[in-house]
Design brief:
With about 180 residues, the protein is an alpha+beta fold. About 20% of the residues lie in helices and about 30% in strands. The chain has three helices and nine strands; from the N terminus they run βββββαββαββα. Strand 4 and strand 5 form a beta hairpin. It is elongated and about 60 Å long. The protein starts with a strand and ends in a 33-residue tail after the last helix.
């Protein structure tokens, strides 16, 4: 008996377990998802029925998808400064909306740091991995510009020399001579 297939005309961006991608085809027994790494992933439909599925392409309301990432910053840093830096990093990130305004949550008072979570909206769910990467890069840049250490994922003690680069990279990699 031939398998019936359905090609999707509407772009569906899903997360099933740890797999994320565009649905390219829905068959009787399986669904094909093209990952951001251009891998074709075959997910049995029985697994779809028994798994948590996140649909990044479905519009819940007009604000878009909430993008977030967490950093741990030492208690000695002023929280208002950290909030301002995280919001600045979100404003520098292409693909994140300016309205509604990005916001910061305190997610944990840890042993050596406060964990802050920056949240901002996007309407580009299929670009989520790139947007998150750019947001994290902008966070590092803004914190380095303001000479503030990011202490996550773990922290033991301050070394004698500052951990924040004191000068911009000159663009040259070190070469080992033969």
């Amino acid at each position: 008996m031939p398998q019936r297939t359905h090609r999707t005309n509407q772009l569906l961006w899903l997360k099933v377990g740890d797999k994320i991608g565009d649905v390219t085809e829905i068959k009787l027994m399986e669904t094909l998802i093209k990952s951001i790494k251009n891998e074709m992933i075959c997910i049995p439909n029985a697994q779809l029925l028994n798994s948590e599925v996140v649909n990044y392409s479905r519009k819940v309301d007009g604000r878009g998808l909430l993008v977030h990432t967490t950093v741990g910053i030492g208690y000695e840093e002023p929280p208002k400064k950290i909030k301002a830096m995280l919001i600045e990093a979100a404003h520098r990130t292409q693909g994140l909306r300016k309205s509604p305004e990005p916001f910061v949550l305190w997610t944990q008072l840890a042993d050596y740091a406060i964990n802050y979570e920056i949240n901002a909206y996007t309407s580009r769910g299929s670009s989520l991995p790139k947007i998150l990467s750019d947001l994290r890069e902008n966070i590092v840049d803004v914190f380095n510009e303001n000479e503030t250490q990011i202490m996550t994922p773990s922290y033991i003690a301050d070394p004698p020399e500052p951990k924040i680069p004191s000068a911009d990279w000159d663009g040259e990699l070190a070469h080992i001579s033969d």
